[in-house]
Protein 1
Amino acid sequence: MANLAKNPVVKLYLTLYNIASFIGWGCGLVFTIQALACKQDFSQSFALAFPYIQIFQTTMLLEVVHSLIGFVRSPFMTTLMQVLSRIFLVWVILFPTNAVTEAVRVFPSVSTMFIAWSITECVRYSFYAINLWTTVPWPLQWVRYSAFFILYPLGAGSEMVCALYAAYLYLKNPELEMFAVPIGSTGYTLKASYLILAGCSTYIPGFPKLYFYMVSQRKKIMRKHREEKKQVSKKSE
């Protein structure tokens, strides 16, 4: 963690933040899986999980601030890109109430997105909370830096499917557009569907950046673990 995290007040704040976030995302995960396990339709899964997802995804904006002011060592731009992409999904695509969002909410990719997000965040926040006070157990470290191989593509892929499906429905039904703002005297109009497609385009440079950042972090952790094991072996000889 960053040096500021050693401050007792900051350390306590970050601990409480991480624990609360772990619980919130855990509720989102449990309710999503529970709805699917009980063979309820996707609308039930959404209705149960979305309030938790919405609240704790929005509070992740604090992590951008944490990075900016030095509470944590997470790269500012990487954190900003990841948080904003999800905020976009939650507030622009899933939150508004109209025929398009209602159709998107029951799309299967919403449930896979919620599951990928929730597992990722439960692992991450538990890792952070423990790391503030002591060494994180190796199994949790391994999961933290290995699960993303599956969860990141699953989450990002589900996000893209949801966004593209929403854009398709808006383009197919122009009367349902959330907004249509004329751009001066150009004759062009800014529509919700265009905004969504523009948001999707950010995944092209954004996802590889986030993914390979985690790959590089995993290499560092694995290298450190191997070195520690060698040192332990030498001492035991």
Note: The longest helix spans residues 203-236.
Protein 2
Amino acid sequence: MNYRINENSFHSREGNRTQLFGAEYDDLTRRAASPYDQNRGLDVSQSTLSQLESQNDVHISAMGERIKSLKSLSLRMGDEIKGSKHTLDSLGEAFDNGQVKLKQTFRNMMVMAKNSRISIKTWLIIFLVVFLVFFWVWIR
């Protein structure tokens, strides 16, 4: 692979490109000027620059205030989230403790029902009758 790159090899492609797009793109002087050209013809005086700088300072200070308020808001949100997490953790522990106590109570009730001479069905009927009496009194 022996390459020879001469100076004109890079410019030789431009002829092919203009042929690709047609003759109207041959003239490179008609293209739009670059926004970075130095000869733009803009007259920027010191007063205009000073006014733009003061507007820039006002906008920067306003953005700084907004950033400070967003920072304080995010810090307060973080504190609230930490407090909520602690509350949810304690609530979860309370539910776990309640579940354990209910299981123990149910187990003790089942042991008591087995040791007594009255069957579980009889206990259920007694509780149902008591509930119906309370419900009837409450309605009246």
Note: The mean pLDDT is 80.
